[in-house]
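Entry 14. Structure prediction run on the chain below.
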Amino acid sequence: MKRIICWVLALTTFISISACSNLSNADQRVLSGAGIGAAAGTVGALIVQGNPIIGLVGGTAIGAATGYMVDKQSSKSSK
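Output returned:
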């Protein structure tokens, strides 16, 4: 039952983040990174039989930070 709840939570998070369409490129990259990180963190935690909530939170934070850094790098290279 816990696995089903975690999958539903991860899917809901990803869908709700991807539904934002009127955002700047920077916002889209950060939110996309957060969604991908959330899904990867949850799946990773389930694979190693860890706590999926910790995987979700950690993955979201790392994904958002990565999306932010990718945006900053992209804006530097375009100038």
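The radius of gyration is 14 Å.
Filed with the rest of this week's runs.
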